[in-house]
Amino acid sequence: MKYSQDILFSAILLASGTAALKDGVGLKPHMGWSSWNVAQCNAASARYALDTANKFISLGLKDLGYQYINIDDCWSTKNRDGSGKLVPDPSKWPNGIKAVVDQIHGMGLKFGLYGCAGTQTCAGYPGSEGREKSDVAQLVSWGVDFWKYDNCYTPCRQNPRPQTCQNPTANTTQFYAPMRDAIVAANAKETNKLHFNLCNWGRDQVWTWGANYGHSWRMSVDNWGDWASVERIGSSAAGIHQYSAPGGFNDLDMLYIGSSKINENQSKLHFGLWAITKSPLVLGLDLNKISSSHLAIIKNKGLIDINQDPLGKAATTFRPPGAAAPAQGKIYPYWAGPLSDGVVIGLCAGTSAGKYSVNFKDVPGLSDRTYTWKEMFTGQSGSGTSISFDISLHDMRVIKVSTT
Ligand code: GAL
């Protein structure tokens, strides 16, 4: 009964074109850093949060728009206190959470935490099921700006509930609704609004209902930091581009720039594709260890500007005359999407090195005329009716074509 009410609610909202969370949060894909890929549970500490915040400033990342310092799983103790409150682990947060949030706010940055829709988080810390209002009140009292909400130990036909349920008792929407409602109520009252990030790993086609539940939603299982993950996630972003819009974006998962499992070209394509598909740009790396070439990738202002374009429309694939059809699970060479002052074209050598060319007249949003353009990785620019680039294996070119 509850389930069908939720579906009905979503249908009404969609039909009326109103998203439940139309509260001014997440109008652009969020940018920041998350602790999880850095050192999993060990990085969920005040030390990592403050160190990263300082690095955002000293490395010039804050000036480019990187804003959220997000602490993932394992920040609390394993048990709630006597009144049912979450308890920051004192060995990781010696002065509590609020002191860190205040410091981070003082630096002009934002702070995020992680929770879970089930009884426990994926790493076995307290989940929020049945305690949504009280947990949101706690987040609000600390001044937290971002809440990633996972999908472990949710209601399941197996007993005891496993960490990852393969046979849930209901659609994920039902597990996410109580927290959504608590956040909508809090955001209506507070000036310090929470960004609600749904982490249900793309289950139940979250992109079709995510905008009524959160400000961003993970559309896949994790990015494991290898080329196979970039291929799997990047290729599947093409089919769901239409669901991203200001206020609600497909989240392709944290960036693994700096992973030893991907090379330089793959890192560029990873960042470039996440940028043009309007994914949140959340760094999953230790900023103390970043190489200068990786720093150059994450600081590419041209790509960041494309990602943060106010139109908020994700690029998708297009098929120029004579090009092969997209292959399932592989990164297609030709991508394009609208910008407020032009069109972005992505050329990906996802399966083979070679010369990649397009005539502007074949690109959605462009016509048979001369345009000026600029390529964002090499800085090359020009004007004409077409573009052509030699691209080595797994590398990418991102071209902004001006229409103004
Ligand atoms: C996973 C989630 C990861 C990370 C991890 C923490 O479910 O997809 O991004 O948050 O849990 O345990």
UniProtKB/TrEMBL annotation:
GO terms, biological process = carbohydrate metabolic process
Tell me which Pfam families the record gives. Answer: Melibiase_2, Melibiase_C
Q: Which reaction does it catalyse?
A: Hydrolysis of terminal, non-reducing alpha-D-galactose residues in alpha-D-galactosides, including galactose oligosaccharides, galactomannans and galactolipids
The chain positions of domain Alpha galactosidase C-terminal read: 333-401
Fetch the InterPro entries from UniProt. Answer: Aldolase_TIM, GH, Glyco_hydro_27, Glyco_hydro_27/36_CS, Glyco_hydro_b, Melibiase_C
What GO molecular functions are on record for this protein? alpha-galactosidase activity
UniProt signal peptide: 1-20
Q: Keyword Hydrolase: yes or no?
A: yes
Question: Cross-referenced PANTHER family, in alphabetical order?
Answer: ALPHA-GALACTOSIDASE MEL1 (PTHR11452:SF75), ALPHA-GALACTOSIDASE/ALPHA-N-ACETYLGALACTOSAMINIDASE (PTHR11452)
Protein name from the UniProt record: Alpha-galactosidase
Q: Which organism is it from?
A: Podospora fimiseda
